[in-house]
């Protein structure tokens, strides 16, 4: 592993940064206020190739694993809500890649993006009203209709990015509730499938440009080929689980393991934006006849912010490199990156408000929005407490609760 980006990575970093600076930042406050999905911004991203299957494929092809976190950091540096609107389909893509066959990957991933002028969205549906952190308690059920070779899905998913407006939904459902998480599977619900609908759309503290809603499944029938991985593989896995033998990765966890460092990179972008803004402010803001950065209280605060950001980046890059090179997370490295980066984002944005004082508390400056946006990174895709549990289990070798 190296700590210096190569020429290709530097070019991608600059390309994404320029888009974030020129397209996202000028529009960020407006879409935060509107709390609507920013179709025009995503369209612009599609036109330049940023919102596309080809871009994601090129990122995944990077053997260092660093292109994806670098791009995500730059996007959220622009704006977290807009970044999640652009990157929200990636969760569905990760779910398909983690659980699907090569044929399913080739069929369904392009349908999560579409093309300029005909955009499509993907959504990954796991959380439920009574099953957030505890994914083993999912109540959404999938029952196989052998006569028609169809799966019938029933249940309600909640807090779903792109939920209800996506063209392709990837739904994690219980096939055998007695096996809990080991009895779950992932299904693709294609566009136009009867029985799937949007429930409540949520109004949120932050990341308001990202659409979050319930997804309701009522006798939703999908063809047998929509079971990711195929029925033979599922039957084998269930048989091993019933016999008490080791089985392959759980449907939801297989996705989260690959995306946690990406989420950490997103948190990192928010933190960096707040740090840079407050640093410039501290250099320009004059009180008692000198710039406030000359006060040790302010300069030390900024020094700690910068240190935490760089430490978080190293954790994110390590986990991304390990994941790309199939190196097992033996000490919860993926969770470490998400945990520390999320906490760093909250702390750094809070400190940025403190440095700006009263100016930081009003919408005239973006730090209050970044502070609101940062909080979700200690909650979604596994709360900070869940990340700590994953790490604790990894380092102890015990099934802690």
Notes on the protein architecture:
The protein starts with 6 loop residues before the first helix and ends in a 5-residue tail after the last helix. The chain is an alpha+beta fold and 401 residues long. The model has no long low-confidence stretch (mean pLDDT 94). It has 3 domains: 113 residues, Butyryl-Coa Dehydrogenase, subunit A, domain 1; 121 residues, Butyryl-CoA Dehydrogenase, subunit A, domain 2 (Beta Barrel), CATH 2.40.110; 146 residues, Up-down Bundle (Butyryl-CoA Dehydrogenase, subunit A, domain 3), CATH 1.20.140. It has 13 helices and 11 strands. The strands form 4 sheets. Strands 4-5-9-8 form a 4-stranded antiparallel β-sheet, with no helix packed on it. Strands 3-6-7 form a 3-stranded mixed β-sheet.
In short:
By secondary structure, the protein is an alpha+beta fold. The chain has three domains: 7-119, Acyl-CoA dehydrogenase/oxidase, N-terminal domain (Butyryl-Coa Dehydrogenase, subunit A, domain 1, Orthogonal Bundle); 122-242, Butyryl-CoA Dehydrogenase, subunit A, domain 2; 251-396, Butyryl-CoA Dehydrogenase, subunit A, domain 3 (Up-down Bundle). Helices cover 51% and strands 15% of the residues.
């Amino acid at each position: 592993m190296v700590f210096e980006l190569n020429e290709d990575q530097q070019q991608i970093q600059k390309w994404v940064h320029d888009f974030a600076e020129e397209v996202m930042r000028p529009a960020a406050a407006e879409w935060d206020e509107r709390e609507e999905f920013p179709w025009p911004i995503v369209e612009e991203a599609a036109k330049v190739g940023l919102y596309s299957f080809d871009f994601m494929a090129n990122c995944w092809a990077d053997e260092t694993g660093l292109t994806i976190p670098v791009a995500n950091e730059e996007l959220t540096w622009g704006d977290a809500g807009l970044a999640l609107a652009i990157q929200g389909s990636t969760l569905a893509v990760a779910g398909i890649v983690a659980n699907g066959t090569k044929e399913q990957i080739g069929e369904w991933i392009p349908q999560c993006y579409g093309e300029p002028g005909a955009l499509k969205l993907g959504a990954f549906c796991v959380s439920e009203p009574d099953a957030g952190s505890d994914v083993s308690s999912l109540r959404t059920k999938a029952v196989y209709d052998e006569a028609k070779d169809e799966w019938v899905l029933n249940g309600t998913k909640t807090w779903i990015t792109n939920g209800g407006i996506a063209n392709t939904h990837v739904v994690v459902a219980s096939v055998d509730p007695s096996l809990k998480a080991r009895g779950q599977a992932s299904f693709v619900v294609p566009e136009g499938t009867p029985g799937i609908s949007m429930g409540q759309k949520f109004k949120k503290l932050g990341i308001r440009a990202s659409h979050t809603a319930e997804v309701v499944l009522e006798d939703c029938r999908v063809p047998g080929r929509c079971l990711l991985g195929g029925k033979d593989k599922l039957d084998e896995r269930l048989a091993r689980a019933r016999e008490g033998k080791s089985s392959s990765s759980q449907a939801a966890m297989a996705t989260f393991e690959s995306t946690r460092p990406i989420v950490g990179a997103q948190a990192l972008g928010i933190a960096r934006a707040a740090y840079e803004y407050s640093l410039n402010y501290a250099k320009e803001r004059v009180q008692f006849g000198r710039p406030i950065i000359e006060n040790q209280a302010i300069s030390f605060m900024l020094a700690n912010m910068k240190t935490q950001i760089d430490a978080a980046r190293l954790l994110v890059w390590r986990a991304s490199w390990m994941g790309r090179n199939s190196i097992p997370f033996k000490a919860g490295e993926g969770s470490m990156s998400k945990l520390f980066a999320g906490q760093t984002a909250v702390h750094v944005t809070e400190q940025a408000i403190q440095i700006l004082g009263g100016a930081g508390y009003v919408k005239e400056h973006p730090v209050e929005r970044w502070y609101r946006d940062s909080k979700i990174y200690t909650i979604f895709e596994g709360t900070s407490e869940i990340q700590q549990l994953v790490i604790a289990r990894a380092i102890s070798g015990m099934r802690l609760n």
